[in-house]
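Quick one, tokens below:
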């Protein structure tokens, strides 16, 4: 059972990318029930996500053709600066435009 996730108010013991992205979507206050997130790039604050054990329930979410980065290794220039700022401000994520 260590690789399971329940979307809602349950402990997330998973480390797979798909399940972490589901958790991110539920934690993100900008994403509402029934939203579709398509074709965007996000830097994720995995440390903040891992601190959060309980998170809100959201239904009917769809995430298509998005890219997620949760580590600063390999980032350069503006992306690295945005990642460091996100960590300093303890934001959940930042979208790269």
């Amino acid at each position: 059972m260590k690789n399971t996730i329940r979307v809602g108010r349950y402990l997330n013991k998973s480390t797979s990318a798909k399940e972490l992205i589901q958790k991110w979507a539920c934690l993100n206050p900008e994403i509402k029930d029934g939203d579709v997130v398509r074709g965007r790039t996000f830097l994720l604050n995995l440390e903040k996500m891992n601190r959060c054990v309980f998170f809100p329930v959201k239904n009917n979410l769809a995430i298509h053709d998005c890219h997620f980065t949760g580590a600063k290794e390999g980032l350069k220039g503006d992306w690295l600066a945005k990642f460091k700022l996100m960590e300093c401000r303890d934001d959940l994520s930042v979208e790269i435009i």
